[in-house]
Amino acid sequence: MVAAAFGAAGSQIIGTFWGWFWVSLLAQFIGFIAWNTYSTQKLQAEYERMDAEVLKGASTFVINLACGYCNVRQNVPIQLNRKNEFLCESCNQTNGVHMLFQATTKTTPIDSVKIPLPNSTFAEFKVTK
Hints:
Structural class: alpha+beta
Largest sheet: 2 strands, antiparallel
Order of helices and strands: HHEEEEEE
Mean pLDDT: 84
Strand order of the largest sheet: 1-2
Low-confidence stretches: none
Radius of gyration: 36 Å
Distance between the termini: 72 Å
Helix content: 40-55%
Oligomer: single chain
């Protein structure tokens, strides 16, 4: 539609309809590609900035810890992606933070339990729901 309008207007000024039509059609495609690339890159940069902010916020936790020197408790921001230290507000000593994570096994519920008896038999107890 736009190319046809430019073709008609251009043919009134100078040249032929089809020349102006194809030039304006090509300009529309180039303009669309340029605008689309710009918009996509702008959105991608915004998404990456938002992801970085979310990760920064998610990696910081506030934990109530006791000072290793005076045993006074205080809230300390902890980041999982770096070494953590804090200055005690009470005694002005620098404390390190030791973090420990431990895995455990998962248990599954059982339906019955068999207990061995002295006469080589078993007593079975069923779990009712």
